[in-house]
Amino acid sequence: MQDVPAALRRKGLGFACFMDPSRPAVVDADHAVRINYETYLFADAEAREAFVADVLRYCGLVTDPVSKQRFRPDGDSPTREHAGVLYVFRNDGSRDMFARDPDRFRVPGYTM
Hints:
The protein is an alpha+beta fold. The chain contains four helices and six strands.
């Protein structure tokens, strides 16, 4: 998976802080969090840490990496970390399939 903050910087894109939209996000790896295929950017370490402390409260809709279905995770949603990314799943079956070959699901692999 490409370095999302680096790709955004190359394109000259800027974003608001996920936790405080009145502030600009710092577009680098230290101010970013990936969950599944989503990247969240923050203005400072404090905003990032507040998000990380309660990810499921803040993340909103995510895409299950196995089924590709969008859903809103909750406290019962199975999770797994792989290569520094937190993955959240719709169900145990998706988590178990991911666990057998996580690199297969690291990139969305959508086709048009």
